[in-house]
Amino acid sequence: MKKRLLSILIPAYQEERTIGEVLRQVSAIDTESSGFDKEILVCDDGSSDGTVSMVEERMAEDARVRLVRHEKNRGKGAAIRTALAEARGEYALIQDADLEYEVSDYPALLAAVNAGADVVYGSRFLTTDRPEGMRLANYLANRILTTSANWLYGLSITDEATCFKVFKTDLLRELGLTCEGFEFCPEVTAKLGKRKVAIAEVPIHYRARNIAEGKKVRWTDGVEALWVLVAHRLRRG
């Protein structure tokens, strides 16, 4: 059976401590048994540390790894959109450049695709109420954003802000994303909701990192995410 191509999109900013291991794990994970070859697209978002060098080392070892770059830091959403523009796969999977998420969950995500889903979210809350290491403030923000998305768009998801999202690539491009920062998640969820696109969910593993370990999301990003959800609901079209 001919395999489809999966584009794994990795936005990266100041991730020299983890990007090498992330790329090693992504390269090694078996997607072929799920019917997918893979390409790995890293967008370096203006890093000033050794992130690019670590990616280039991996590129020398694995021809499936490609690198695109921003001269200046623009934000996670902008990096995802730049990588998306270069994607060749029928499906696109969003992967963070840290080690909070486990690539061992790829087969579950791809099983949902093979079952017919055009969009799959990996939920951190389907197997546990509060994932390992998640601070109370982050937990409450996740619950508020998910509840708001469900109420505003008639959804029934459990994890709006999860990193692990898989999309049919053409569908993701058709959404006309404009996000620059962490508002990628609420923007894409809102636009899917307005189109009445079904979102499948599968349980995933997760271990939160802290600010000292490089976590970049702040409370202001949660406020902006909520505003994005509301703004798209009020917007016509």
The H-level CATH homologous superfamily, spelled out, is Spore Coat Polysaccharide Biosynthesis Protein SpsA, Chain A
The major sheet is characterized as:
7 strands, mixed
Strand content: 15-25%
User: How many β strands by DSSP?
Assistant: 7
Please, what is the oligomeric state?
single chain
User: What's the structural domain tally?
Assistant: 1
Structural class: alpha/beta
Per CATH, the architecture is Alpha-Beta Complex
General shape: globular
Regions with little confidence, pLDDT below 50 for 5+ residues: none
- From the alpha-carbon coordinates, what is the Rg to the nearest angstrom? 17 Å
> Number of DSSP helices?
8
Strand order of the largest sheet: 3-2-1-4-6-5-7
If you consult CATH, what is the topology? Spore Coat Polysaccharide Biosynthesis Protein SpsA, Chain A
CATH top level assignment: Alpha Beta
Report how far apart the termini are. 40 Å
Please bin the fraction of helical residues: 25-40%
